[in-house]
Amino acid sequence: MGKGRDKELIRLRDEALCRRYYYWTEVQRLRFDDALRILSEREFFISEERIMAIIRRKSREGTDKDFKPLPKVKVPRLTASQLELFKI
User: Directed axis angle between helix 7-22 and helix 48-61, to 10°?
Assistant: First the structure.
């Protein structure tokens, strides 16, 4: 018998996590960061970073076609001339 975590249990956990992510983001229409917080703190007790890594990996594998993870958000860089447009 091998040591370590059972790969089948991890696979089942990852599938359940993806279904719950879909539920919170698509059915309940929560923002993805709020959904991650719920999954992390209330349901699966793993870090938000780990949850996103699992979701990205599962979407690349193509096993679940119902969900797509949101892309990493990049903050736009504003120039001084763009900010001047908002002067009151």
Answer: 90
CA dihedral 20, 22, 23, 27 (to 10 degrees): 180
Q: What is the mean pLDDT of residues 21-40?
A: 92
- Taking 3-state DSSP, the helix, strand and coil percentages for the chain, each rounded to the nearest 5, stand at 60, 0, 40
pLDDT for 19-29, tens place per residue?
999 999 988 99
Residues written for the chain: 88
**29: alpha, beta or left, given left = phi > 0 and alpha = psi -120 to 50?**
left
Could you list the residue range(s) of the whole structural domain that residue 82 is in?
A: 1-88
The radius of gyration computed from the CA coordinates of the chain, to the nearest angstrom, equals 18
The secondary structure of residue 40, as a DSSP letter, is I
